[in-house]
Fold this protein.
Amino acid sequence: MSQLPKKARALLKSVFGYEDFRPGQAEIIAAVLAGEGVLAIMPTGSGKSMCYQLPALVDERLTVVVSPLIALMRDQVRQMRACGVSAATLNSMNDAQENDEARRALRSGELRLLFVSPERLFAPGVLDTLARAGARRLAIDEAHCVSEWGHDFRPEYRDLGAAAEALGAQVVGLTATADKATRADIAKRLFKTDPHVFLHSFDRPNLALNFVAKDQPRRQLTRFLDKHRGESGIVYCSSRDATEKLAEFFAEQGHQTICYHARLDQAVRNRNQDRFLQEDGIIAVATIAFGMGVNKPDVRFVAHADMPSSVESYYQEIGRAGRDGLPADTLTLYGLDDMAFRRRQIDQKDVDDERKRVEHDRFSALAMLCETPVCRRQTLLAYFDEESPPCGRCDICLQQVKIYDGTVDAQKALSAAMRTGQRFGANYLAEILIGAATEAVRRNGHETIKTFGVGKDRTKQEWSGIIRQLFAARAFASTEHGGFMLTPKGEDILFGRAQISLRLDALAPRERRKEAPR
Ligand code: ADP
Ligand code: ZN
């Protein structure tokens, strides 16, 4: 393993004001300074940028940083300059003066970090200029954009490997996307020989993970918040409307709340955010607009009133809790309506079918995490390709969830959908199963089908739990109008070619079951 020069630690303190490296940084920076090809995979917020910022200062040479977002480049330049580091950007949004200044700094040899968009890097003459300026290394931020396997492929990234070669520069790739296929693909595309791969754990052991099927969300959230009175926390909602209503509701319950979403006035947003950052014990009820740049170390809890859009966003959002390393709590409410809402959102996006399919798959991974019968942390880390033992602390570990062979129940539910033309939602299917001859059921003549009443042994609520699990397991897919149809997997189960395990506890919301014996 490469040794970290003393100068690195000294500059970390004198330039950036940090006492110590974050986990993983020291090893990566040592390898970068030793001139190795490096691919670093670290979770968001773990301090990836430092892995190229500091080396540029240690060896006093130019590092070219390729980054996909102009806003982020500008942000970094501002931060670097505030630390007294010579930095500039070259991008299509620059005015002439900014570009002239960048070129001047390049020629003078004082520049340490130059942020460029990939398009700009390949503009005529730019590579030559950079070579002449003595570019030592090419740092590629969001390196997963180079891979078509990743979720954010950008064609402009494709030739970055060749650009590095033309420059004769060392490559340092950084990304928070860790699945194996993408990782291998990045390595192949950016590096001539196998890079030194640093895979930092995505585990956040101080976060307690809890999921609950949504039943009476206000009551469920109130209980969670009452456990955390006086602490700072965030409650995420999927709509602006919901944030306002919930913030008001929690305030009535005696909590101090602020509301945050994109439609609020900028001034109001800033004021609310400042209050959250500066005061203790404030609950931010917010959409995902809240979070970027919220770096409060002592956030003690994050709750999701609605399901997030993917495992990545879930991970990022809960990751805002417990940055100080002390225990922090999380709660995610999930339900069929949420799942249908997210699916609809994807379907309505203006992107091609392939992309929609990928997004559906990514959402399905989150739905599986909600319905998983095994440890949440284990399931979450498995998504990032990490193996881990059961954590012993999540809701599943603590409850010892019971699973049963749900194949027969699943067949009943799937058959109910099949025999009613694969166009009805969970509520209607549950009515058919318990044999409720509601007006709608009679109007459709469905009280005469074979499946009517085959599920009398269970309650309507239990059937919704089963249908939700089938949906999460992708045995059911949703139709355009919110109904359910069978997937190939659903057909396999229906026709006895496949089995499915279901969670007993998820059939009825847990909280009510606990209260029932009283
Ligand atoms: P990433 O790119 O991995 O999402 P960033 O590079 O933006 O993360 O870093 C996240 C935050 O961590 C930044 O505010 C950064 O200044 C801070 N940071 C980086 N390294 C350290 C360190 N060694 N000690 C304390 N804070 C650090
Ligand atoms: Zn667990």
The longest helix spans residues 353-371. The pocket of zinc ion (ligand 2) is lined by residues 375-377, 390-391, 393-394, 396-397 (CB under 6 Å). The longest strand covers residues 328-334. Residues 39 and 197 are 5 Å apart (CA to CA).
